[in-house]
Design a protein that fits this description.
Blueprint: H1 2-11, E1 26-30, E2 33-36, H2 37-42, H3 56-80, H4 86-104, H5 108-114, H6 119-140, H7 148-157, H8 159-162, E3 164-172, H9 175-186, H10 191-198, E4 209-214, H11 220-228, E5 234-240, E6 243-253, H12 257-283, E7 286-288, E8 294-296, E9 302-304
Antiparallel strand pairs: 1-2, 1-7, 3-4, 3-6, 5-6, 8-9
Helix pairs in contact: 1-12, 4-6, 6-12, 7-12, 9-10
Length: 308
């Protein structure tokens, strides 16, 4: 529930163009602001604004998102004075388009057009992202910052999942084969050369190179051995469900404590924002026209699908 609410604040179900402005019958009212049927339909990129409402469950879901959007943006303004300027929105638009360019290799305009997102819809997304950024700043001041001890505790509990290592291995069927291969390496032979000669998996032609990965990409026995192996030294045999491994770790890196503390702080901020969102939606004065459903706040705020 909390994650979805947070995303809805950022994206506003992607494309709420402007409640009360599209005309048509009113579907719901939020603290005096009308949301029309057309407003809700315009939230869906593939929707025909003139089409009749066919899927009651989908409409109830979209109406829920519209209610969230209206209530949360209004609360951000009234409680925290968050009211994005056009300059802020324009700057965020530029950031979004730059990120799209970097990630997709095409201009933001081209990519968004391919997704059916127009300039007006993107403007809504940018405005809501500015609001989310401002809420982050507001709530960051309210949390207790993470300590080194807390970061160390989290790292200790999730060390395998958070450690990146560059690893090579030699996989063979029996412990005897692994021991014999290790003796060759300890005797001075090159790890990669031995891997190419005796390795039985697809990495053998590449000298057993597995690349650089977070250690939780591997089975537990392998990951634990790679976590503790001395850098630049072959270790094993290590038994797994695949056979027997010799493991060679060329480098290994853990995240910095400062980064883990920032992550903990962000979690706390998101928890605080989510609690505020839930409180805001629960307190909002929402009326839904009976033909479109019923507004409830338990167990989660939402429009329940009409039964008839």
């Amino acid at each position: 529930m909390r994650k979805s609410l947070l995303l809805l604040l950022v994206l506003g179900a992607l494309t709420l163009v402007g409640c009360g402005g599209a005309g048509g019958p009113t579907a719901a009212t939020v603290d005096g602001v009308n949301i029309t049927v057309s407003d809700v339909q315009l939230m869906r990129l593939d929707a025909d604004p003139d089409a009749a409402v066919v899927d009651k469950a989908q409409f109830a879901s979209d109406l829920t998102n519209a209610i969230f959007n209206v209530a949360l943006i209004a609360a951000a303004k009234s409680e925290f004075g968050i009211d994005p300027t056009e300059a802020e929105v324009s700057a965020k638009l530029a950031d979004i388009e730059s990120e799209i360019q970097a990630a997709q290799g095409v201009s933001g305009e081209e990519f968004l057009a391919s997704q059916g997102i127009g300039a007006e819809q993107l403007g809504v997304i940018a405005r809501q992202q500015v609001i989310k950024d401002a809420l982050d700043v507001e709530f960051l001041e309210r949390i207790t910052p993470a300590t080194d001890a807390e970061a160390e505790e989290l790292l200790a509990a999730e060390r395998i999942a958070r450690t990146t290592a560059c690893v090579s291995h030699i996989l063979v069927a029996t412990e005897e084969e692994a021991t014999a291969a290790l003796a060759r390496i300890d005797g001075g032979e090159d790890f990669a050369t031995v891997a190419m000669e005796v390795g039985t998996d697809g990495t053998a032609p590449n000298g057993g190179d597995l690349g650089c990965e977070l250690l939780d990409a591997y089975v537990l026995e392998f990951a634990e051995a790679a976590l503790s192996a001395p850098i630049g030294e072959a270790v094993g045999p290590v038994e797994s469900e695949f056979g027997f491994h010799l493991i060679f770790v060329s480098s290994r890196e853990e995240p910095a404590l400062v980064d883990i503390k920032s992550e903990i702080d962000l979690r706390r901020v998101n928890d605080e924002i989510s609690a505020w969102i839930l409180e805001t939606l629960t307190a909002a004065d929402v009326t839904v026209q009976p033909e479109f459903g019923t507004w409830v706040t338990e167990p989660d705020p939402q429009v329940q699908v009409p039964t008839s």
